[in-house]
Amino acid sequence: xxxxxxxxxxxxxxxxxxxxxxxxxxxxxxxxxxxxxxxxxxxxxxxxxxxxxxxxxxxxxxxxxxxxxxxxxxxxxxxxxxxxxxxxxxxxxxxxxxxxxxxxxxxxxxxxxxxxxxxxxxxxxxxxxxxxxxxxxxxxxxxxxxxxxxxxxxxxxxxxxxxxxxxxxxxxxxxxxxxxxxxxxxxxxxxxxxxxxxxxxxxxxxxxxxxxxxxxxxxxxxxxxxxxxxxxxxxxxxxxxxxxxxxxxxxxxxxxxxxxxxxxxxxxxxxxxxxxxxxxxxxxxxxxxxxxxxxxxxxxxxxxxxxxxxxxxxxxxxxxxxxxxxxxxxxxxxxxxxxxxxxxxxxxxxxxxxxxxxxxxxxxxxxxxxxxxxxxxxxx
Length: 380
What we know:
Blueprint: H1 2-18, E1 22-27, E2 30-51, E3 57-62, E4 69-70, E5 75-79, H2 82-117, H3 123-155, E6 158-160, E7 165-167, E8 177-178, E9 187-202, H4 203-209, E10 224-227, E11 238-242, E12 252-260, E13 271-287, E14 292-294, E15 297-303, E16 309-316, E17 324-329, E18 336-338, E19 352-354, H5 356-379
Parallel strand pairs: 1-19
Antiparallel strand pairs: 1-18, 2-9, 2-13, 3-5, 3-8, 4-7, 5-6, 7-9, 9-12, 10-13, 11-12, 13-17, 14-15, 15-16, 16-17
Helix pairs in contact: 1-5, 2-3
């Protein structure tokens, strides 16, 4: 490598002394250009349910394991229910007592009606009996409500899944005291048969995606998903939701993409990258290796008909394919640019333009010549 570099440097000096450098030049043309805009994304399930207890108590049973598929209504945890069973018994007894008091009040009311008809008791006495009946009826209603509440609290001791899906991490085990105010949920159940993938774009990017008109997600293109391992998800997704509120801090708008996930390959909480295709008509492309960056600006060397170089500033689209830039200003179709050797030339220098094919053959010939000289030197 040292021999090759030294010989190549000597050859450049000889060429500079003998005449202009022979360098590759490309004539630009306008054409269609396709690329992908990439956005970080978070994967969620169609239904992501945090499982939290509605009552406080110690866990006595755990019916599930991580990764298990469960159906809606299936028991997940059992809490100690002794206190709640006692509350149900107490509420039931209170209801029986209230019903007995009501029966007595009803009997007194009927008897008082007969006595009032015979003028044995006064109207005020009858009113007292009527009020006692209403009070007894109200007490029965209160006791029924208390019994319903006690039974409901007892039912909460069996924690069930509100949705069908796959169980996530189990944060509490047998013997742990849990409550509705616990910091972490007992677990999470995710229904991921339809995966929701969320990503954010700026307002300008959203308008570009929609062609600058309307606000309907139906006008947005099909997108692809690159997974965290670098592979691409086989099915395309559809943008089904666009947030109606712009984030005050970031100025971004959140979009939701729906992906079919019948095989369960996408898991809730995973990350990936959304790939949004863009198509540019009449695009002028320049190789990224042909550009020179200075002070966060990009430049190329344009070549006139006499081979004279001009250091020209260009602006490019933020979307690129990693190989070429799409020029938005500074160049036009028909312009010629230097595509290699940009570090060994300067503004105003005259070169001898070569086609890229001719330059590649020349460099290969030089390489073979240098390798031949190196092998000969080793023999001596």
